[in-house]
Task: structure prediction
Amino acid sequence: MSASETLDVLRVERLAKRFAGGGGVDCVSMSVRAGSITGFIGVNGAGKSTTLRCVLGLLTPDVGRIDLFGEPAGPKARRRVGFLPEERGLFPRERAREAIAFHARLKGLTKREALSAADRLLERIGLGDRRRARIGELSKGNAQRVQILCALAHAPDLLILDEPLSGLDPVAQSEILSLFAEFRAGGGAILFSTHSMSAAESLCDHVVMLGGGRTVFEGPLADAAAAAPHGAIVVTADEVGLVAAALAVGGEARPMSARMGDATRWRVVLPRDVTHPALLRALSERAVPIFAFEPIKTDLEGAFWDLAAPAGDVAHRRAA
Result:
C-alpha cells in the first residue's frame, strides 16, 4: 500500500465548540483516509453539522485541532475539499451548467476549465442535453445531482457530504451512490454524514458515531456492526412486567422513543448466553402482552442504538 493510500486526508482531535443557547460538540476526534468512505453517524443534535462546519472553516472551534492533508486546516487546504451542505443552495432560475461552473471557479478553476468540467460531469450523469435547463425545471433527484456536481467540479481530494440522500426516492439514491463510488474508486476520500444506516452499510468502510457531542465509536464498519448487543425489540403496554422479565434473565430493558398508542417499544439487552426463547418464556410467565418481538440484528443500526442513542431517549435499567 502506498503512502498516499494510507494518508489521513482529515484528522480531527478533541474538537469542542459550544453555543450560548446550548448545543455543539464537546470532544470529537476522527480521521478520514485517502481512498476511503467514512460514515459520519448520529441523531439530530449529536453535533455532526457543527463538526463539519468547523472542518470547513465556517465555524471556529473553542479548542481542538483540525488537519487537512497533513497540515493545519487553512484556505489552501480547504480548496481541495468539496462540500454538499444539508441546506440546499441552488437558485431555481440558475442554469445547470452555469451553477456547476460557478462553484468550480470559486475553488480556483478558470472560466474555460470550469465550463469544461461542468459539461463533462453533466454528460457523465446523463444530463448533457439539459445543461441549459434551469434548476427549477429539473426533477428533485436531478437538481440534487447537479448540486453534487457543484461539489465535484473542481476535482477535490476530499468530499464532505451532509445528508446527501435526504428526500430522494430509491432510484435517485442509487444513482447518487454510484457517483460516490466512482469518486472513491478514483482515489478520492468521502466523509458521508447520514441518517441512513443501510446507505452507510452499503457504501462505507469506516464509521464514526457521535453521541451527545462526543465520538462514541470510530473504526471499521465490520467492528461497528459487531458492537451490536444481543437482545430483542419488544412492544408492550406492560412496563412493570417487561422490566421484571428482563431482570429475571439477567438482562436490561431500555424504553425507546417510538410509541404505538399506549404501548412502548423496549430494547431488551441480554447476556450473550441467554436465548431469545428464554426471554419469551419470562414474558409469558408474567402474562406480559406482546404486540411485537424482533431480535436485535447484528448490524450497524443495532450497534447505533447501543452506542449513540441520546440520553434523553434511552433510560438504562440494569440488574443489580
